[in-house]
Amino acid sequence: MIKTFTVRLLLLFTILYSLPVTASDDPILEGKSPEFVKYYNLGLRYVRFVDQVSSLDEADIKDQISILFAERISKIENGGELLSADYPSQQALLMQLMNAKTSFGKWKLREKSFRFIPSAEIRTTVVYFVGGSENGLSFNTSATLVFDIDDRITEISEAFAPFVGPSL
């Protein structure tokens, strides 16, 4: 049991930290304040998580959720409330992501589509990305992420729609 936990924890940190979670070489960050860079990178960390979810097993997704998200999460998707911060919702987020994996299969995000609008003043980052799934769905997503003082996501307000454009 301890060996399985240790291996799973090692795998989780390998996944989380093997991908670049900062973009210090991105020209858009040149001359920006440390707070701007911090919230830009928090948005990037979320997008990297979304990019990896469809390739991870349930236990690894759950581990990442506990690192990236507050215990109570509010999530609105296309105007409808999916998760309420009125009760602990990490488990509900896990179930929503597992359902997405079942519905869409594996997906991959187009890195060149990533856009971030960070605001340290209100602990928020707006992210945008385009992706495609093995089931043939191409999609674009814009999400506003709100972070707590521990840099964990407390709110996601997401607009998700089919992507009409060049094939992914």
Structural class: alpha+beta
**CATH architectural grouping:** Roll
Shape type: globular
Indicate the radius of gyration in whole angstroms. Answer: 16 Å
Roughly how much helix do the residues carry, as a percent range? 25-40%
Strand content: 25-35%
What is the H/E string?
Answer: HHHEEHEEEE
- Weakly predicted, low-confidence segments: 1-21
Averaging pLDDT over every residue, what do you get? 84
* Sheet of most strands: 6 strands, mixed
Write the layout of secondary structure elements.
Layout: H1 2-18, H2 34-53, H3 58-68, E1 69-77, E2 80-83, H4 90-104, E3 107-119, E4 124-133, E5 138-147, E6 153-162
Parallel strand pairs: 1-6
Antiparallel strand pairs: 1-2, 3-4, 4-5, 5-6
Structure explained in plain terms:
- This protein is of the alpha+beta class.
- It has a single domain, classed as Roll (Nuclear Transport Factor 2, Chain: A), CATH 3.10.450.50.
- The protein has 4 helices and 6 strands, in the order αααββαββββ.
- The protein has a 6-stranded mixed β-sheet with strand order 2-1-6-5-4-3.
- The longest helix has 20 residues, at 34-53.
- The radius of gyration is 16 Å and the shape is globular.
- Mean pLDDT is 84; it is low at 1-21.
